[in-house]
Amino acid sequence: MKRFEVGARVHEATYGLGSVIAVEDAFTRIQFDDNTVRKFLTSIAKIEPSSEPAPTTRPRTRKRKTTKTAKAKAKARPVEPPAEADPHLEAELDGDD
Question: How far is CA 46 from the centre of its chain?
């Protein structure tokens, strides 16, 4: 069974080049050059060592967009109408009884 050390550069047929970030009992976790992280069952994965150096900069991860429905729900919250004044309180304030 192939075992890789953390930090080793590897190539996987589907995802390309990456760096090993964790080696667990039966799994190898790889961060690929496009910033995705994948977990492979080491015994069946087609992972090969690579001498290609890691990129100097990795692509930025994109922020998740908020869904339109969340924004629509926030805008559609019902606005409570102003509370109606109690006629008895208005009379007390005016001084009329």
Answer: 27
Which architecture characterizes domain 1-54 according to CATH?
A: Roll (2.30)
pTM, to two decimals: 0.57
CA 15 to chain centre: 20
Tell me the torsion sign for CA atoms 40, 41, 46, 48.
positive
In 9-66, where do the E strands start and end? 9-12, 16-23, 27-32, 37-41, 47-49
Measured CA to CA, the distance from residue 42 to residue 49 in angstroms comes to 13
- For 27-48, the pLDDT digits (tens) are 999 999 998 999 999 899 999 9
Token couple for 74: 């926030």
CA atoms of 45 and 28, how far apart (whole Å): 9
In the chain, where are the structural domains located? 1-54
